[in-house]
Amino acid sequence: MIKGFKIGDKSSKYPIIQGGMGVGVSLHRLAGTVSREGGIGVLSAADIGYLEPDFETNPKEANMRAIKTEIEKARKIAGPDKIIAANIMVAMTDYAGLVKEFVKQGIDLIISGAGLPLNLPEFIEGSKTKIAPIVSSLRCCQLIVKTWRRKYNYVPDMIVIEGPKAGGHLGFKRDELFAQDDKKPSLETITSEIVSFVRDLEKETGKEIPVIAAGGVFDGRDIQKFLSLGADGVQMATRFVATHECDASDAFKNAYVNASEEDIQIIDSPVGMPGRAIRNEFIKSKEDHKLSITKCYQCIKTCNVKDAPYCITKALINAVKGNLDEGLIFCGSNVGRVKEIVPVHDLIQELMSQCEAASVRTA
Questions:
Q1: Comparing C-alpha atoms, which of 245, 249, 224 is closest to residue 347?
Q2: Domains observed in the chain
Q3: Dist CA 225 CA 362 (whole Å)
Q4: Which of 181, 182, 246, 258 is most buried by a 10 A CB count?
Q5: Distance between CA 48 and CA 350 in Å, rounded?
Q6: What is the DSSP string of 134-195?
Q7: Interval 7-56: pLDDT, tens
Q8: Are 12 and 83 in contact (CB under 8 A)?
Q9: Buried (b) or exposed (e) across 198-213, using 16+ Cβ within 10 A?
Q10: Bridge partners of 162?
C-alpha cells in the first residue's frame, strides 16, 4: 500500500500535496478538504484577504487578518491532527510579515518559492512550523541548503521540486521553456539529481527530508513514476481547481474544463517572470495596449507599476471571482486534459487507485 510521509510530528495518509494557488483559488475550503481526505492542503498567501471588506483601502491589514480566519476554517474542515500548509512567495512585498503571521497562527508547514527563501529559517525560531523551499534545479537546492546550514544550522523539513510544466509563475527562463524537448529541463532528471543529493544529506544529518515533485503531475501514473524515481510525494494544483470544493468561482473552474492544449500560453507577467495561463480575451487585449493602473496594492517587490501592462492583483482577483474577460487565469501544462469538476474525495481516490495499479504493473 502506498503511504504518505511525515512532516514534524504529523503525517499525511497519501503522498499528495495540493499546490497553493492565488489569488484566492486555494483557501480554507479546498485546503481543509484536501487535508481531511488524506493529502496536504495548502493555503495561498497571495492577497489572502481579498474578500475582506477593507481590502481595497487597507490590503496589508486585510491580508493579516484573513490568515487567522483561513487557518481556523481550514482546521475546522480538516480536523486537528491534519497538516495545513501555506504557500508564501519570496517575491511578495511583505514576505517577512506574512511568514511571521502564519507562524504566529500555528501553520504546520510553509512552502516558499518565487525567489530563493534564504532567510526563511529566521522567522520560525521557537515555533513548531516546518519549512520547505521550492527549487527548480539541483544548484538552487544546494545553495539554499548550504545557506540555511551555515547561517541558521537548519536543514529543510521538505523540498519541493517544481519543473517547467507547472502553472502560474515559473522558475525558468523563457528560452528554457521554449527549448526543444531534448534540451528542455526535465522534472524527471531534476528529481533524480535532487533525490540523490537529499539522501546523502539525510545520512549526514540524521534527518528525514521528504522530496516532492511538482509541475505537470496529472494522474496516478505520474505519481507512481515520481515515487519510482525516489520522490516521497507529488504536488498537484491544476487537478484540484476542477473540484467542487475549490475556492474559485464556477466560471473559473469551467475555464479549465473548457480549455484545450492550444489555449495555453506562456506570458510575461508584470512581476518580471514568465507564467503559464489560459489565453483569453484579457491576454489578447493586453498584447495591443497597456492598461492604466489606477491603484497599486504593493503586492510584489519586482513589479514596476510604471511599466507594467496591467495590475496582476486586480487581474487575478477578477479571474477568481468569475470576471474572466478582465482576468488572468493561471494554469498548468495539462489543463487541456481536465474534463469535469468532481469532489476532492473522488479525485484523490482516483489518483491513488491509478497509482496503486501502476505500482503493481511496475513491480
A1: 245
A2: 6-250+337-362 (3.20.20.70), 258-326 (no CATH)
A3: 9
A4: 246
A5: 30
A6: EESSHHHHHHHHHHHHHHH----S-EEEE-TT-SEE-SS-HHHHTS-TTTS--HHHHHHHHH
A7: 988 999 999 999 999 899 999 999 999 999 999 999 999 999 999 999 99
A8: yes
A9: beebeeeeeeebbbbb
A10: 214
pLDDT tens by residue, 106-138:
999 999 998 899 999 999 999 999 999 999 999
For 73, the 3-state DSSP assignment is helix
CB atoms within 10 A of CB 160: 25
Cell 493602473: give the residue.
Answer: 293
Alpha-carbon dihedral of residues 98, 100, 104, 107, nearest 10 degrees?
A: 60
Report the alpha-carbon distance of residue 362 to residue 165 in Å, rounded: 25
Q: How is residue 184 written as a grid cell?
A: 528542455
Distance (Å, whole) CA 306 – CA 293? 8
Report the distance separating Cα 46 and Cα 185, nearest Å.
27
49-108 residue pLDDT tens? 999 999 999 999 999 999 999 999 999 999 989 999 999 999 888 999 999 999 999 999
- Residue 220 vs residues 12, 103, 114, 119, 217: alpha-carbon distances, Å: 17, 33, 27, 35, 8
Q: Give me the amino acid identity at 164.
A: P
Task: Name 206's Cβ contacts closer than 8 Å, sequence gap at least 6.
Answer: none
* Grid cell in block for residue 238: 491544476
Q: For the whole prediction, is pTM greater than 0.90?
A: yes
The grid coordinates listed for 311 are 495590475
Q: What is the DSSP string of 290-357?
A: PPP-------BTT--TTT-SS-HHHHHHHHHHT-GGG---B--TTGGG----B-HHHHHHHHHHHHHH
- Answer whether 309's CB lies under 8 Å from 290's CB: yes
Q: Which of 316, 346, 311 is nearest to 331 (CA)?
A: 316
